[in-house]
Amino acid sequence: VGPHVCEKHASGARPFSRVLVAPDELNIDSVTELQAKVEKRAILLRQDVDRLSQQKCQIVRRQTEEALNLDVEAAMQRHAGGVRIQGEKAVNAVFEALRFARPEHERA
């Protein structure tokens, strides 16, 4: 197998230069260590994503509850006026009935 080409930062005029690394120079222990670090980091990132997902769900749930509460309050205020008017009409109807019933009762 031929040599592998890796890019390495050089301090010369060119920002990168090509360095040839022969396969027998590859350090398997370093590769294994790097792979373990990458896998550990992937686990940590997955945990972070899960935690962020849970936080997002909590935020969305709270916002939904707040929006529903506002809708319920608005609906109650809209209907409160109608209920108040119906109550006033019912009270007026009772007083009107009393006004007509009182003279009849006094005559009897």
From TrEMBL:
Organism: Noctiluca scintillans
Protein name per Swiss-Prot or TrEMBL: Uncharacterized protein
Native organism taxonomy: Eukaryota, Sar, Alveolata, Dinophyceae, Noctilucales
